[in-house]
Amino acid sequence: MRQITAEDLDYLAIGAAILGTGGGGDPFIGKLMAQQAIAEEGPVTLLAADEIADDALVLPSAMMGAPTVMLEKIPEGLEAVRALRAEERRLGRKADATSPIECGGINSQIPFLLAARTGLPVLDGDGMGRAFPELQMETFHVYGVAGTPAVVADEHGAIVTIEAKDNFQLEWLARGVTIRMGGHAQLIDYPMSGADFKRTAVRGTVSMGLAIGEAVHNAHSRGIYPVEAVCAATQHTIYGRGIVLFRGKVVDVERYTRAGFAVGHATLQGLAEYQGSQLTIEFQNENLVAQRDGEMLASVPDLICLLDSEVATAVTTERLRYGQRVVAIGIPTPEIMRSEPALAVWGPAAFGYDIPFIPLEARFKDYYRKYGVASDKEKYLGE
Amino acid sequence: MRQITAEDLDYLAIGAAILGTGGGGDPFIGKLMAQQAIAEEGPVTLLAADEIADDALVLPSAMMGAPTVMLEKIPEGLEAVRALRAEERRLGRKADATSPIECGGINSQIPFLLAARTGLPVLDGDGMGRAFPELQMETFHVYGVAGTPAVVADEHGAIVTIEAKDNFQLEWLARGVTIRMGGHAQLIDYPMSGADFKRTAVRGTVSMGLAIGEAVHNAHSRGIYPVEAVCAATQHTIYGRGIVLFRGKVVDVERYTRAGFAVGHATLQGLAEYQGSQLTIEFQNENLVAQRDGEMLASVPDLICLLDSEVATAVTTERLRYGQRVVAIGIPTPEIMRSEPALAVWGPAAFGYDIPFIPLEARFKDYYRKYGVASDKEKYLGE
């Protein structure tokens, strides 16, 4: 248990932007709203998954749609509360906690906005362990939790409650409603028991976002290179240490919108020890694969993050531009995100890549033998 | 009170297609479904508005979307029941009756399908008195009934409950959901008391649809010209007698799809006493205006119906084709549909025509002096 203050949300925003792996949306507006709510209502309790009762009711919360739209169509502020109340009414039961659905990007902040306004605790875990673009791309879905009934709410007081035949139709219908609400809305989905949260969530991701943010913020004063601080911040988690994949200058960005996604690639020309080499990152909202001179270095669902080479803050897909000096790092995903059913939902093939998923620990054995891996990942280090 | 049998629905389908004024959707699939339900469950009770208690709960029912899609994506059959049950659950109360939302076209049939499956009576009245394309184009809306909470249900068991800031947003959101459900869905909206139904519904429209259908069906055996039988069938209702506007041959049809509507016009070359003259009908799903040689003869919300010149069945917008011999008739709308707030929603200006609404009775005074009008329409016959 830990009390989350407005200042903590500054750190969380920095860390969550990195966990957004290029996407997930700028946490800025969400952070301001959550900070205002905490200023008015007091700090929010963050509970470890183990601290919630098995029979508790957990109602995860998020914004749905295009975070860029939020910069022009500002939320009213109590959408998430109305969505929660509608879900409680539908289920005939009060919520005991909320949680993130997505720990990367703006959705790291929304549960704190909701929690501050309702007095609920936030659970330390989420359904993506990073950012992903669709509602069925969640460990909650992979491990059998129904996404419905779900509620989508807008700033005018509209409330749409969705029951669907499966989590794919939930995504399809909720996306349609969100579009008609103007491009973004507040969402409650995957209502579940505390026991189901413990079984299916990617644990500790809020704490990890906070830790990454604090590491970035304090690196210079501690005399640590900020990019190294980010890599070290995930070392003793279920993820494992981040690894520098490349340093370079952005020399090409092709980015276009297809079916509502920001799709494209960026090319980095190597600097320092990477001189003479090229890295290509392909993205679909989030960074999906990283190849150095044609050789695959990392792929989804492992995290591929572009960081500012000086201060190690996230460089998101929409902010990529010619001349930026960036460092590409990889962060291994937890094992709960690498099971066969999980990879069926978000492995390279799910994004159209005809390649197997090879974990970072298996690609960079020497590095991970040196720094160590989580106990359930030792299989990747074998001869 | 009257029992409605499967055979009655054959008549209702004929009459409702005419009340569809070119749109409203072919009642065929809806009729088959309702007839099967009646065959399995027994006849349905049709109640006059005055026969329902003021404090009864009325849940109007309809299909939403493109009736043409229903020919390929056949309903499962119990969508409307699921929608009704979801609405009852949301309201915490069982329904006492259903009613049509739209008496023209396929939506004349849906309430009988629902009523047969649930044992509810159908109320004899609706919210449009004809066919219109959107959910806020209802007397229920014009006279202050909230359209929400509304429920949209598909054939896979998906149920979407909508609460909106107003009836325009209801239309917008429900339309979006219907599109994502594949183009059509079942709808429950405008939940209201029996008192509100009495106050806001266009009364007797189911009976009138039945009467028109019977008139068409029996005209030949009674030795009456079928088109005249249609005109006479509405004479002693709140509408008033239909009037022949033109007889001719279809010589031109321009029809295209714009924003989901079938938009265009048809030109008729006059036959018999109309030889040498042209009639142009402009439509947007439904027929909106009829002009003879440039002179306006009739406009929305008065009903402009194209009938087969031999058998007087409806010729709908999507079936218009070169060479057809048709008779254009006008049917005056009831006064409840001609108030200032009503015309603001569906007068000529609401469809982009910069003309005042002039009732048929005022345009054709001699005809209506001869045949008479409903008592609240006598003002149109003055010197």
Brief account:
Chains A, B: This is DUF917 domain-containing protein. The structure is a homodimer. Chain A has 13 helices and 17 strands.
What attributes does this structure have?
homodimer, 383 residues, alpha+beta, CV3147-like, 7-stranded antiparallel sheet, 4-stranded mixed sheet, 13 helices, globular
Write a structural description.
The structure is a homodimer of 383-residue chains. By secondary structure, the first copy, chain A, is an alpha+beta fold. The first copy, chain A, folds into two domains: 2-203, CV3147-like domain (CV3147-like fold, 3-Layer(aba) Sandwich), CATH 3.40.1610.10; 241-381, CV3147-like, CATH 2.40.390. Chain A contains 13 helices and 17 strands. Chain A has helices spanning 6-19, 28-41, 67-70, 79-91, 110-118, 139-142, 167-180, 194-200, 205-218, 226-233, 340-346, 360-363, 365-371, and strands at 2-4, 44-48, 57-58, 61-65, 122-126, 150-153, 159-163, 184-188, 192-193, 202-203, 243-258, 261-270, 278-284, 286-292, 295-299, 303-308, 325-331. In chain A, a hairpin with a 2-residue loop joins strand 11 (243-258) and strand 12. In chain A, helix 9 packs antiparallel against helix 10 (226-233). The radius of gyration of chain A is 20 Å and the shape is globular. The termini of chain A are far apart. Strand 7 of chain A pairs antiparallel with strand 8 (159-163) of chain B.
